[in-house]
Design brief:
29% helix; seven-stranded mixed beta sheet; globular; three-stranded antiparallel beta sheet; single chain; alpha/beta; 13 helices
Length: 431
């Protein structure tokens, strides 16, 4: 993680900085701006209207940003072009829904904090639960709902009442540190000439490509290359790229072309682009992993209505071959929605099925650049936080004992506080 501040409660993280530190630098013949940016335009500090429809823009690694027609001096050294993520995708200066004054973190109102926080700090957990239930009943009366809450909604309210104080206080302290250092700022209404130029829909056909791959004829493993090493700009057939693990073994990023669009592959990395039902190439890769992070497409009504992406049933999620991919004492991290059915499934069914012992629940808290929750903390519809369930693979006793000295203890509860990316479902870094 690109940690800005670390406290007992957790971390304030700069997601944008982490992406830009991953080494998206093109070397060699494809480093010339005109050679790799036919579909993009370069963002410069002087011209905020020159924005492409992609999330990354190229800039020189040694000098100010170049325009598409500019050349890079290459005499005596290898040409390089560094790509950076477009910062306007993290320019979230205002919350999606403004919270009531008494529900805000109050970091910009010290006179309010002096009155509000001293008497709350003396409360115990029971006081907070009673207050939350009281507020909930008031909201219920105000809305004049004709039906009572179902069991799932009641379970969600009970869970929120347990974690609310931890999230509020931990986020408050981290935000205060961010404001002191200048990483966060009070100017929530700050104007940006690029703000209105952020594309509403970034077209990416990878999900559709993986869906199509299920219709491809089966590949004969004996005649097929299990691993494909990326050289220069790769524009192989989609079936070739989908049926094997792709590796970038170099110290520079590589460009790969899929369905007419260009993608950057970071240095020293590998990936399998595949539907979850076609993981055999990854199994044939014969590598074990010390950390496995899973972000399943959970089934819910919102996903069904939007038809934005396909979802997996709970049974399908259990079929992911985590035990076959995990090294001894592998740390498994699963992103979970705020639906309690899914949280119970991970802890009570999924992890035991994978021989994973649950260790902790962490929370990712989403804030604005001004340090406010992106949604009211007590919103009944959506919460400004998401859950991570951390567990460790329980293997053979002898194998576990050999590696026990290398195992890092996992804190029971931590917060990861960050400004979220405006692109759908982009999670913060955990590395």
């Amino acid at each position: 993680m690109s940690v800005v501040h670390r406290l007992t409660a957790g971390w304030l993280v700069d997601h944008l900085s982490f992406i830009n530190q991953c080494g998206y630098e093109i070397c060699g013949s494809f480093a010339h701006p005109g050679g790799v940016t036919r579909s993009t335009s370069v963002t410069s500090t002087e011209d905020c209207h020159s924005i492409s429809s992609f999330a990354a823009t190229p800039s020189s690694s040694d000098s100010p940003t170049y325009g598409p027609g500019d050349a890079i001096e290459t005499e005596g050294k290898t040409a390089k072009m560094r790509y950076v993520f477009r910062e306007e995708f993290f320019d979230m200066s205002k919350p999606h829904i403004a919270a009531a004054p008494e529900e805000q973190l109050c970091q910009g109102c010290p006179e309010v904090c002096l009155i509000f926080f001293p008497f709350i700090s003396s409360w115990n957990d029971t006081d907070f639960v009673c207050l939350f239930v009281f507020c909930f009943l008031l909201i219920l009366l105000k809305r004049k709902r004709k039906c009572v809450f179902n069991q799932g909604e009641l379970d969600a309210l009970e869970y929120h009442s347990k974690v609310r104080k931890l999230i509020w206080e931990g986020t408050l302290h981290l935000v205060q540190e961010g404001l002191k250092s200048g990483f966060l700022h009070h100017s929530a209404a700050k104007l940006s000439c690029r703000k209105n130029n952020v594309p509403q829909h970034i077209v990416c056909g990878l999900a559709e490509l993986c869906e199509m791959a299920k219709q491809f004829p089966a590949v004969n493993e004996s005649d097929h290359q299990a691993v494909h090493v990326l050289e220069e700009e790769t524009s192989s057939g989609e079936q070739d790229l989908l049926s094997c693990v792709m590796e970038n073994t170099s110290n520079c990023a590589k460009i790969i072309v899929l369905m007419g669009q260009k993608y950057l592959v970071p240095p020293k990395s590998s990936f399998l682009l595949s539907d979850i039902s076609c993981l055999q190439p990854l199994m044939n890769y014969k590598k074990k992993y010390d950390v496995i992070v899973i972000d399943p497409p959970w089934e819910n009504k919102s996903v069904k209505r939007s038809n934005r992406y396909s979802h997996l049933s709970l049974w399908q999620i259990k079929q992911i071959p985590v035990p076959a991919l995990a090294a001894p004492n592998c740390l498994v991290v699963t992103w979970v929605t705020n639906r309690q059915k899914h949280l119970r499934f991970v802890k009570d069914e999924l992890y035991p099925h994978w021989s994973v012992k649950t260790l902790a629940e962490w929370h990712w808290v989403k804030i604005t650049t001004a340090g406010e929750f992106v949604l009211p903390l007590d919103s009944l519809h959506k919460k400004p936080y998401e859950v991570l369930v951390l567990g460790r693979v329980q293997g053979h006793v002898k194998e576990a004992l050999r590696k026990s000295e290398d195992v890092v203890p996992i804190p029971e509860h931590q917060l990861i506080v960050s400004v979220p990316c405006s692109l759908h479902s982009h999670k913060p870094p955990l590395a």
